[in-house]
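Input record (one chain):
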Amino acid sequence: MTKQPYGVYVHVPWCRRRCPYCAFYVEVDRDVPWDRFVDALLRERTLRASAFDGLASTLFLGGGTPSRMPPEHLARLLAGLPHTDDAEITLETNPEDVDATFLAAVRAAGVTRISLGVQTLDPRFAHLLNRSCTVDRAAEVLEQVRGAGFASWSVDLIFGLPDQSPDDVLADLERLLAAEPPHVSLYGLTIEPGTPFERAVQRGTFAPADAETWRTMYDRIVERLASAGIERYEVSNFAKEGHRSRHNRLYWTDAPYVGLGPSAHGYRPDGSRYANVRDAVAYLDRPDPTSEDERPTPKQAALDLLISALRSADGVPRSLLTRLGLAPDERLVRALVEANLLLDDPAALRLAHDGFALADGLAERLWDGLVPIRGFNDAPAS
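The corresponding structure, as predicted from the sequence alone:
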């Protein structure tokens, strides 16, 4: 038991349609048993209570399409999840679900932050991404969210699409910036295994942007967002002052979190991890939905830490690696600093400007170079 701050992630898997780029666990279903689903989520929260004491500081509903959940069920769920009075409560939404009535209802239910999955306001690329909403309607929804009175809100943008030029991306970004979002989440298209886009690549009918074009797009977006006062604080996340996602910061600072729902993952304060069954029907029926439960070795825990925390502008505090009995290879760190990929910071491993686009690869290189601290007890991560 601990009073350490923690967050709650809720995976809502149901969607109206499957996006061709998405590899998350989703179910396309028009008839969702919302009452049973909320019951199952609250049952699981009770199951996890022994590991998480006190009140959650953040709640995040992702998916899937959480905005499909009717507001009355959302209100019952949020009321049943113990959280602080000032908790950040984020709801991922798709534009086709949103209107003024919906926004008022979810705000009354307790939501403080909206994450809007627009992805693009260019009709050509909206068609490619199989978006359910017209770009004109999505632009209207942006304005509605802007004026709805939430403490904060965010909008998603995808880039690196086939036949998309850097100028196309900047034009798309300008349309989004017209709504003055305080937060932008930026996603370079990746071809995930098992998705329709992967099958199209294998058939030779689909080709995302090459590495050089991708990098040009990313750098130009970062520059334009900075000029609008929206600063990068993680590889894919940009915010105006006071609008950084508190929930996502938990992942980047090695803080614990409860994962609720089918396929959700959790990270307990004692360093152990669990994953839930990847099946909505089974999740509804099982008193304990856990499908995996493990305590990572120090080396495994270090990889998780580097992959997540290195992406943040704050980087990986060396003290967190020391707690695991590990230290970075200083010759490698020096070489990466000299290559302008890491900053020269004695307290943390932090990305320099050129390193942000290479964060995942740098995390693996640093992990490969970790060395045991002499005399440290090689105990499980805690």
